[in-house]
Amino acid sequence: MTEQRPVVQTYTVTGMTCEHCVKAVTEELSALPGVDEVRIDLTSGTATITSAAPLAVESVRAAVDEAGYELVGGGV
Q1: Which InterPro entries does this chain map to (predicted)?
Q2: pTM
């Protein structure tokens, strides 16, 4: 049996300026099914998500929108 490696995807999020922003985005992204970890870099405006399987960009965009911010592009 092969071990499934986690998937790491990085997205650019605009509008985050403080720790409250980080908390709001982290909470929304963490609620997505399969997400194991969310790391936000406020300086670069990136959200790095570790999950069991690739996430649909539409789901990530909806979560970021719900937090009140904007996802730029489709992620890496």
Answers
A1: Cu-bd, Heavy-metal-associated_CS, HMA_dom, HMA_dom_sf
A2: 0.90
The DSSP bridge partners found for residue 47 are 11, 40
Q: φ and ψ at 11, to 5 degrees?
A: -125, 150
If you search the block for the tokens 């969310």, which residue do you land on?
38
Helices (H) and strands (E) in the chain, counts: 2, 4
As averages over each run of 10 residues, the pLDDT of the chain (76 residues) reads 82 96 98 97 97 95 97 80
Q: Which stretches does DSSP call E strand in 24-67?
A: 35-41, 46-51
Exposed (0-12), middle (13-18) or buried (19+): which is 31, by Cβ within 10 Å?
A: exposed
Cite the beta strand spans of 16-72 per DSSP E.
Answer: 35-41, 46-51, 70-72
